[in-house]
Amino acid sequence: MNCFNHNEKVAVGACQNCNIGLCNECITSAFKVDNKPICKPCHLTMVENYIVELKKELSQITLKKIIWSVILAIGCIVLLSPFAEGISFSVEHYLIACFIWAFAGFAERTQKKLEFENSAAGVREKLEENRMYADNTIWIVWIFYP
Q1: What's the rounded Cα separation, in Å, for the pair 71 and 2?
Q2: Mind giving me the DSSP string for 93-143?
Q3: pTM of the prediction?
Q4: Is the pLDDT of residue 146 over 50?
Q5: DSSP 3-state helix, strand, coil percentages of the chain (rounded to 5)?
Q6: DSSP-assigned beta bridge partners for residue 36
């Protein structure tokens, strides 16, 4: 088999994704994943996919900023409404505003926890947690670990 990029050279390795032949020159200059070479077309595809993921995350971040701004505004309105109405400040308004902000934070944390649990790191942590609780010492973990 000859090199994909240099037809006159003998292939000494292959792309880990598409298995096309690569010569020694291409292997030394190739992008590597787990110390295995990837050809330029496969590397370009990986970069394009990564850019698509980043754009998706950026749009989600923008949406989250808008949602958090609205939640912050609602909490501020509840907190400051007694002053606008000319009545005295009450603890209830403060508690309602704090509840709104706390609920928003709890919802965001729950979403991040679900995303983490569905990731590879989350699965590894869950397996480790199950191994740790296998000997029925869960109450010790609750008492001594924050």
Answers
A1: 61
A2: HHHHHHHHHHHHHHHHHHHHHHHHHTSHHHHHHHHHHHHHTTTS-HHHHHH
A3: 0.47
A4: no
A5: 70, 10, 25
A6: 33
